[in-house]
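Service request form, structural biology core

Requester: graduate student, group of Dr. S.
Request type: structure prediction, single chain
Budget code: on file
Notes: please return the result as structure tokens.

Sequence provided:
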Amino acid sequence: MHKPRASVIMPCHNRAPMLRLSLASFAAQSAPPEDFEVLIVDDGSIDDTPAVVAPYLGNNFRCFRKPHGGVSSARNYGIERARASILIFSDPDMVACPDFVSRHLSHHQAATANVVMGGKKEILTHLPWWMPRRPAIFALRKLSETHPALFRKVISMVFTGAMRPLLMEKDVAPEFHTLERFTLPFYLPEPPDPASTCIAWVFMVGGNFSVTAEMLQQAGAFDEHFTGWGLEDIELAYRLHRTGACFIYEPEAASYHQAHGFSLRDNEIAIDRNLRYFVEKHPHLEVQLHGAFIKGHISLERYDELVRRYSEADSAAPAGAAKE
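Core staff response, request fulfilled:
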């Protein structure tokens, strides 16, 4: 059996409407189909996920169904079944640009890094049934540009109930550029050059990164003690960093996060719980400062400055000196 160069691992739980566009984008990649496989891990979905996946099965698409265990469990399930030496991680609410796979592969082929972080944008693919299309897109774009936190709060409140699609599978390929009309800024900051920061790992999000299977084996897979939303990807990134991984940012390996409803309160509870576990597992300054950063107590620049200052002081300390 032919061995692909990359395995795209996509966990999925009850995301059928968005999964349609995600799968269509991977079926329209510029990379030859024999270069990559797409592993969909259906994590106990009870919606139309099997019907959405069915037309794509065969060739380079495979699907595995398992009892619901959470995103870390689903990703690990995919890792165990991947056949390639390069693992690319995506999510069912992500629409990949046509060069997504090839851009990730190019960095690994050139050995410029063993962890590649792709670019991220937000995209409107559905709207609540009652929202007028043009005014809603204009207003939401303006809000995302000026008040990203408020934008997420609005999305969490109003993107519920009956939704109507703005885009269909045919819009993803071959006319991918038409999606720009529905694109918004992503809510997370743009990563700096990894060579210029001590904390490149904090920008690695689960919906768009790749890593060599060898490096992942050294660092270990996703920690399944993280439950609910958030930080399971950052904790893995921190272990990769501690293992000696070299990170690179490739904005052209872009994926578009489809705006969808969620429970802001549930996410806040999960983040608090996962952050406590993160700090307990890694009682290091970088991790403690990460908690202060995501809570808004320190800026990204201050975070980087404090880690850099501590690292310089630590390396200058005499061998065997006690550390706080």
